[in-house]
Amino acid sequence: MAEAYLELGTNLGDREDYLARALAQLEGAEGIRLGKRSRVYLSRAWGVTDQPDFLNICVQIETDLAPEGLLDICKGIEQALGRQARQRWGPREIDIDILMMDGVDMETARLTLPHPRMLERRFVMEPLAEIAADREIDGISVADLARHLRVDAGAQACVPDAAATERVRVLLARD
Length: 175
Prior knowledge:
kinase activity, 2-amino-4-hydroxy-6-hydroxymethyldihydropteridine pyrophosphokinase, two-stranded antiparallel sheet, 5 helices, EC 2.7.6.3, ATP-binding
């Protein structure tokens, strides 16, 4: 099985419920085993900034799926949870991005791994550093990459949200 990392984000509706339902569906998907999970982080919108704040979380998974098979599952979960097609980087019910996968460096029309913009996004690197601090990207630890973004992030506010983290935990425990 290969190790992979995913980032989930939401800024519409019951955000904690969307995260919990997406995590539950990932956990129930064939070929995926959930591992470490970060706390939930509250972050300002990136790209298109005139929209509600996001809740973001990163998870480590083990999978025997090929990258595009994993992508199909992630997109299927988004669709099952009601994600609507809107503008790029706009508001969304749920978004599941594959950040990186052991031994995979690829670029196709559907998928680029490692994720091409993750190193620019504090809302990705902060929760990722929580669960994969020592993992290296281009010879630099995830912890150091996140620390660099904290210094240079400017308006990219991103902080752990204890209440959202607890609510997601409670929602998952009910399933």
